[in-house]
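Marked as duplicate of an earlier ticket. Keeping the data here for the record.
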Amino acid sequence: MGNAVDHTDGHCALVTVARYPDRAVIEVTDCGCGYELEPGSELPEVSDSGERGRGIRLMRLLADAVTIARKPSGRGTVVRIVKLLG
C-alpha cells in the first residue's frame, strides 16, 4: 500500500483483503502510471540508501504467490498477494 500511495501522490489507492478456507488474498490497486513485472523477471535494484527496492523481494519471500500487473482497463497497477493457510 505504501508504494501505491507513493506512486499516486495518495490518490486512488485501494486495498481489498479476502479470506478463504485455504488462503488469504490481498489486492492493492492504484490509478498511477502502471507497472508490470513478469514472473521470474529481474527485480528492481535496491537503492544505495537501502530505502527502496526491497518490497517485491519481501512480498515474494513472505507470500505463496505475487503478481504485479497493469490494470486491465484504465491506468494503474494491481498487486495481488496470496498466502496459503494451514
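See parent ticket for discussion. The two ends are 25 Å apart (CA to CA).
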